[in-house]
Design a protein that fits this description.
Strand 9 (188-192), helix 7 (201-207) and strand 10 (213-216) form a beta-alpha-beta unit. Helix content is 34%, strand content 18%. By secondary structure, the chain is α/β, with parallel strands linked by helices. The chain has helices at 34-48, 73-83, 99-102, 120-123, 127-135, 168-181, 201-207, 219-227, 242-252, 294-306, 326-340, 351-359, 374-380, 386-391; strands spanning 14-19, 25-26, 29-30, 52-56, 87-90, 110-113, 139-143, 164-166, 188-192, 213-216, 258-260, 264-268, 276-279, 288-292, 309-313, 345-349, 368-370.
Amino acid sequence: MNYIKDQKNLDGKIILLRLDLNVPLKNGIISDDTRIVKILPTLEFLIKNNSKIIIISHIGRPKGKWNEIFSMKPVCEYINKKINSQVKLIKKNIFELKKEELFSNSKDQIVFLENIRFYKNEEENDMNFSKHLASLGDLFINDAFSCSHRAHASLCEITKYIPSYAGIQFEAEVNALEKVTKNIKKPITCIIGGSKISTKISIIKNLIPRFDNIIIVGGMANNLLKYKGHSIGKSIQETNCETNIDDIFETSKNYPCSIILPEDVAVGKTMDDRAKIKELNQIENDDIILDIGPKTINKVKSIINKSKTILWNGPAGYFENPQFSKGSIAIGNQIANQNKLGQIFSVAGGGDTFALINIIDIFDNFNFVSTAGGAFLEYLEGKELPGIKALN
């Protein structure tokens, strides 16, 4: 894979820059700018090298139709303020654009194409659409790792028609994930949560041969507790997943990897209830498991302290209610503390984990926090992402 930061001759070159700027918007206001902040080093690098930049991105799922609700205008204006440089949004139909017209004003350095998903050709990975996009620039940069599990035109097919490179953020994502899946410093621990075990069974099975500990928390732990014969009351659970759980424990028999489950839990009668700590044999039929208990917290913290590498994906409970956020906060803070001491290499990813890390303000105390959701998980599964394959 070629990386843009290694390229020297970028002066005057027109760069097609694919970004993931699918930020949360409410009434046209950006509520979380992390995805924008993360791509600023690539933008600043290109500006410093006197390149002309065409930004390609998307917001939401407009399903191939023009819809002002999904316009890139708020993001364009926000980036304009962030980099203190004029950024122009081009509303014109992409098929009508010509390379020589995009920077007719010599003062223009950055132009923003309207939402690429306004065109059904994008999600169809259409050859002619890709070829036309490629004709607008001299080089292509993919700095949208979080979209790279999609075989879309502006991520995959385009690389056949123009010299293509990975951006600075893209490289950082891949390097961080390689450190926890290939270039591992042991002992290595994965803390994995979420509500559905079926969506993460392939990840767990892929990590068992490489990891020393896999700690399963959150809603998905309920299924494993039930499998082990414990009552889980009316807690969230997934049906017809016994075969998946069998696969986890059968795979783990062949490797020195410990599968760790909650030993005690925090329950409520409703999601808005106050937390009550219970042993596994005390759970009543109308209890809902919503967090891990203090014994489990201490065990997880002890494992974190003995680890050299940590991968965290998924909170330990229903952290939206502060009564059930103690487990998730304790895990986050313990990883952050060990990181500050230089004891571990830590990577976190997934939407809920990302939100939690921001809430408790420990973002800077992780080696890497991924904004990617699907791409992050599919990489951990061992899948070859279409966007990476295209760059290779």
